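Input.
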Amino acid sequence: MWAGILVYTFFGLSTWWATDYPMRAKDPSPVVNSASHSSITSDIQRLANEDPSLSKAVSLALKGHGHFEKENQLTNTLIIVDFSKPSNEKRFFVFDLRDGSLMFQTHVAHGRNSGMLYAENFSNQHQSYSSSLGFFLTAETYTGKHGLSLRLDGLEKGINHNARIRAVVIHSANYVNQDFIEKHGRLGRSFGCPTLPDENYLEIIETIKEGSLLFIYHPNTNYLKQSKVVN
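Output.
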């Protein structure tokens, strides 16, 4: 099945791009049913309209999706991590781009050297124990010391391309839950991995594995200047 021209209306602005590669066989539905958006407001629009920070993250994420789908056979699932928010808020979002629906929203931890309540410092360096920003492609799963885990490939040279050799993966941890927040006012912190709660991580990983685009956002001046994708 070959995809044609995609038109997506977001905040009154029309973004389009042409695609001429086969859609992924496992999910042949077209990305974003624009006809449905003329009569209903999708979750992705509604949430972004309610939250200026998420609005910026969504706008850049959709721009990145248009960029990277030319090079990769992406799934119709878009993951956004909004690191402008504190870790005691649910800042991990999974959207279905076929209809803009919200599939998951949950907590996610950042790297221990990125900050305490907020992630403020970011790195692409090995053993920095910091989170990285930008666009990633979800890859294969494996079972390690944290149970089922999902490898990530950084797509932005000089920003996050060391993700795989740094072993930056999505996994669960017992410091990502409401009880920890109530005791400490924030989540625990990882060695740089976007870490999820134990309660729903298996379903999330199974949903987003193998070819979904992940965008980790923060209004970090260095990233916004350095990234060739968002500029």
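The chain has one domain: 5-226.
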